[in-house]
Each structure stands twice: as structure tokens, then as C-alpha cells.
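Hi all, posting the design record for the shared folder.

TITLE: backbone redesign
STEP: 1 of 1
STRUCTURE INPUT:
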């Protein structure tokens, strides 16, 4: 998601808000909106972590089944 600060400032100034106030609001809102956004790198790192965890769980499950088959 992108946030067009210039369009936001323009809309506020059209509504009668002082340009400096509109720019300050745009900066503050952009910081709030964009700080909580996950980046592509964040998602790639999460995918790698989940792949490793699920792979580990699969190896453990297969090993446990192998042990159970030998016991019974």
C-alpha cells in the first residue's frame, strides 16, 4: 500500500487547512500508516522461518512414526 502525501496535502489545503499544517499531518499519518506495513523482505524472512520450522516438524514426525513402527 502506498500513501500519496502530496495528494493528501492538496486535499487538505483545498478544504481550507493551512499548507504547513496539512504537510505536518501528512508526515505524521504516513509514519503511522507505513511503520506497520510489512515489507517484501519481512514476508520473505517469515516464509523462510516457517519453512524451516515446518520442515523440522515433519522430520520429527516421520522419525517418531518410524520408532513406533519398530516398537509395534
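Okay, here is what came back for every position:
SEQUENCE:
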Amino acid at each position: 500500500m502506498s500513501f500519496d502525501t502530496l495528494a493528501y496535502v492538496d486535499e487538505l489545503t483545498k478544504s481550507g487547512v493551512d499548507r504547513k499544517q496539512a504537510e505536518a499531518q501528512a508526515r505524521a499519518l504516513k509514519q503511522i500508516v507505513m511503520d506497520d506495513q510489512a515489507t517484501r523482505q519481512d514476508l520473505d524472512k517469515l516464509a523462510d522461518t516457517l519453512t524451516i520450522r515446518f520442515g523440522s516438524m515433519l522430520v520429527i514426525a516421520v522419525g517418531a512414526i518410524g520408532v513406533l513402527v519398530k516398537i509395534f
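COMMENT: The two ends are 55 Å apart (CA to CA).
Let me know if anyone wants the other runs.
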